[in-house]
Amino acid sequence: MVSGSDRIMVASLLLLCSLGASVFTSSAQEAYDGLPETFRKGVDLALEKLSSHSGIQHHFLFFKSVAQSDIQPGFDVIFIYHHFFLKATKCPKGTTDSAGCHFRNDRPLIDCAVCYKTFRGDIEQEPKPYIHCVHKPSLTEEMKTTRVNHCNTLAYNSGSPTLLASIGN
């Protein structure tokens, strides 16, 4: 038999758990919303590419930035480099409203690096945007080097200094 005080304790625990889950979801959205628009577009590209893989079963959300840089050579052109993590949610792949999607803690983070050129705020198709995402435990030093080299080449092809030498946000 359950006493009245036990019921109150169980109800309180359930309330705390649901509030905690809401905080995780809202902080994910706040982290994404806190990014400048040009960086959010790169996160969206990575999420779109990740969702296109048949092996992905869950909906992912932006988790946090690791590094950001941009080079603004002028004439409304910006070269973007963004290294960030995506995290699986409990929602199935294809979910359109992420408001109720809570992070899973039983899946590894997805480590992503993207670099691309924007003109007047829109991502240019040339040079082709570079998107590299891999489960964090699988990321090797060689992969990291390849990312950096590819992104630096993107900026040098346009006569700009290296993306990773730029001091970004």
UniProtKB/TrEMBL annotation:
Annotated GO biological process: cell differentiation; chemotaxis; inflammatory response; regulation of lipid catabolic process
Keywords noted in UniProt: Chemotaxis, Differentiation, Disulfide bond, Inflammatory response, Secreted, Signal
An MF annotation (GO) of this entry: signaling receptor binding
Residues of the signal peptide: 1-28
GO cellular component, one term: extracellular region
Location in the cell: Secreted
InterPro entries: Chemerin, Cystatin_sf
Tagged with keyword Signal: yes
UniProt name for this protein: Retinoic acid receptor responder protein 2
